[in-house]
Amino acid sequence: MYTIPELQKLIEQAIPAIEYPSHPKNLYDPITYIMNLGGKRLRPALVLIATDLFSGDVNAAMPAALAIETFHNFTLIHDDIMDNAPLRRGKQTVHEKWGVNNAILSGDVMMVEANKQLAQVNTGVLKDVLNTFNTTAQGVCEGQQLDMEFETRNDVSILEYINMIRLKTAVLVGGAMKLGAIISEVSPEQAELIYDFGENLGIAFQLQDDILDVYGDPEKFGKQVGGDIIANKKTFLLLNLQQAVSKADEQSLLDQSTNNNLDQKIAKITALYEKYDIRGLATKEMTAYLDKAFDALARIAVEKHRKEQLIQLSKELMNRET
Amino acid sequence: MYTIPELQKLIEQAIPAIEYPSHPKNLYDPITYIMNLGGKRLRPALVLIATDLFSGDVNAAMPAALAIETFHNFTLIHDDIMDNAPLRRGKQTVHEKWGVNNAILSGDVMMVEANKQLAQVNTGVLKDVLNTFNTTAQGVCEGQQLDMEFETRNDVSILEYINMIRLKTAVLVGGAMKLGAIISEVSPEQAELIYDFGENLGIAFQLQDDILDVYGDPEKFGKQVGGDIIANKKTFLLLNLQQAVSKADEQSLLDQSTNNNLDQKIAKITALYEKYDIRGLATKEMTAYLDKAFDALARIAVEKHRKEQLIQLSKELMNRET
After folding, report:
1. What is the mean pLDDT of chain A?
2. Does A120 score more than 80 pLDDT?
3. To pair with A23 at 20 to 30 A between CA atoms, which of B5, B29, B70, B259?
4. Where is pLDDT greater, at A227 or A236?
5. Considering only CB atoms, which chain B residues are within 8 Å of A113?
6. Residues of A with CB below 8 A from B126's CB?
């Protein structure tokens, strides 16, 4: 069995080896650029981790892993346009560097590149692989659409929020692992279990992200601590606070949304989170999803010791500060 | 054997029957909207025409035909954003109606819908179908990129122009027909021949489009006659004129590029086209590609009478005024 760092290394080696056409240069350079901005390569690694868990051939799963990473980076290019984001991993975003039109089109051709990689998997599992990949890609698009719509809505329910992060983040985690299972030719039931593990882990991961935005260590957290608060982002924490606050605090919360003193804004909203123990509530919810993930993992029919790495990885992801 | 109008009718019936998710509404409504703006459905019909030519099962080819039409409409959504176009077939473009971000994302999910349809073809031909579709889609993206780049370049050669229209328009015509051939399980040689027929027909079609921009009947031509001249678009005609003009006429041609009297601009440039017989030159080039198409068709190993409809269609396309 491979260790997770070994699988991540395989991905790291495979990415620069992908060959794109050289012409038109401005169409393909952005692909090389964003694919090499780095990152933990967790999504493609999960394809290989799932393959290895079920004793499948990790090399046979590599095209699917690269398809997942390519697709993920394509969504980053288009999301950055939609979010008007100037930076990605501290570097210029593609649309900043090449212009919006070029970024739209490079993203489009990247989606084709993802499909080209996918088409390389063994014929026997190809149809299942395509169906899982397409369902996953569709979910991610739906999640991004909901995320955009939530920005201008004031009646987002907590259930709707969970569904949005499920689509935007978690289906890709689940889908990546399901691809690995399909390539290992396990039963549909086993493939669904690893999907459930991944999806629930993904939701827990995103809830942890919401918590870290407020409580992360500024020295270690990759993004600006309080960034969601400043942007009035409807996170799991804010939506729960809005439900929990008394009439008196409701007005004070409302006032903060237009407070231009950002340090004060962060401090005041964090104080409200403390008062209503929103952190405890969010941690409880996160733990519930993590438990669901572990329940699914426990039901997977492979020797227990093969699951240990995944359990360890999950725990690390939940205790991370970055 | 089906008639071409019968195949077009099959497509017309199949399109409204495609089921998209109902939610998020703003993600999927643009798909239904653009798919139902009309058009001749020529591209998807070509998949079925090729299938029928090779005595394949037209119903088995329908998913690939719908994938081609869905992909084509996805490119229209994104192209309209890039071209900042307000109207498409006389109706608001998707980005005008739903906003640019929504249009990017609806386009993205449409690409996924195209792939979902494609994944429904018979397993035995699936890999070939995917490879042809992906190569086609990639070519179309490259063509759009080159088209955008040519707007700001002053050194576009005629060969580069032909390559651009080949990628932007003709590979989709060829690719659509090749899909039909693959689904009919013909030999790779036969599939390449119908691809060559389609690609060359597509180039001839686009050259005819360039000619019609200047010489089309304003009552019948779908677009504004002289629209390319007004926009200083580097068409086959303009590029050839630039090569052919004398020193004296070169300055007069240059002056027209900034002439705001549009009727005069059209008249003066048309006069230069006449003087150097650019229409004759373009017609000759168009005919050469049409001949190449017919040569490929002649080499296809099916009874001659089965090819008659395609020959008739090709001739109609070259003698059209719309």
Report:
1. 95
2. yes
3. B70
4. A236
5. 138
6. 123, 126-127, 130
Chain B contact for A134 (CB, 8 A cutoff): yes
- Whether residue B103 is found in the same domain as residue B201: no
Domain that holds residue A106: 1-157
Nearest-CB residue to A104 (from B21, B82, B131): B82
Among A109, A126, A137, select the one facing B112 at the smallest CB separation.
A137
Where residue A80 sits, what CATH number does that domain have?
1.10.600.10
**pLDDT band for position B222 (cuts 50, 70, 90):** low
Say how many domains are in chain A.
2
Which three-class secondary structure string do you get for chain A?
CCCHHHHHHHHHHHHHHCCCCCCCHHHHHHHHHHHCCCCCCHHHHHHHHHHHHCCCCHHHHHHHHHHHHHHHHHHHHHHHHHCCCCEECCEECHHHHHCHHHHHHHHHHHHHHHHHHHCCCCHHHHHHHHHHHHHHHHHHHHHHHHHHHHHCCCCCCHHHHHHHHHHHHHHHHHHHHHHHHHHCCCCHHHHHHHHHHHHHHHHHHHHHHHHHHHHCCCCCCCCCCCHHHHCCCCCHHHHHHHHHCCHHHHHHHHHHCCCCCHHHHHHHHHHHHHHCCHHHHHHHHHHHHHHHHHHHHHCCCCCHHHHHHHHHHHHHHHCCCC
Same domain, A146 and A206: no
Q: Do both A146 and A100 map to the same domain?
A: yes
> Does residue A110 register a pLDDT over 90?
yes
Answer whether A111 sits within 8 Å of B108, measured CB to CB: yes
Asked if B108 is an interface residue toward chain A (Cβ–Cβ < 8 A), one would say: yes
Q: Which of B133, B153, B185 is at the close of a domain?
A: B185
- Mean pLDDT throughout B67-82? 98
